Amino acid sequence: MRQAREDLRPEQKAENDHAIFARLTSLAELTAATTVFCFISSGLETDTHALLEWLQSQGKRICVPKITGKNTMVAVSFTGWSGLEPGPFGIPAPVESRVFAEKIDVCITPGLGFTLRGDRLGHGQGCYDRWFAHHPVGHRIGLAYECQLLDHFPREQDDITLDMIITEQRVIRV
Prior knowledge:
Elements lengths: L1 H5 L3 H16 L2 H5 L2 E4 L10 H9 L3 E9 L2 E6 L6 E3 L5 E3 L9 E6 L3 E3 L4 E2 L5 H8 L2 E7 L5 E2 L13 E3 L4 E3 L1
Parallel strand pairs: 1-2, 1-6, 6-9, 7-10, 9-11
Antiparallel strand pairs: 2-3, 4-5, 7-8, 11-12
């Protein structure tokens, strides 16, 4: 899955990111949301920087992940780019550590691979699955390129499925 993302030409990745952004920002679930938990993209992940700026412009309350220990993640308020510093794995994370304790309407998640059934293959730490198990969210949405979709992959009993997957070509509702 990593190789599939690496094989995308930079101009193709940019086009795909734009198409995913357009599909995502037109979703009723997102436009109606008051609070949104969104990962901060890095490397070859589907870009969320424009999305975070759009969410701010829409007056949404935004939180982002912060790794706080081995395999532990919390949601922390996103106040802007200046409030971030490199976190574990080089992923930008808030300097602030106060946990966002309010109800979250939509969670935008990363992943290496996804199935049409809403299965999500992460990076092997289980942070999102553990977080989902203790934090109810209105809609769990994965962002992916079509090349990241698989027919199936092994699931573990603690894996949490997503409600939707957005690619450059379609919105997949599970």
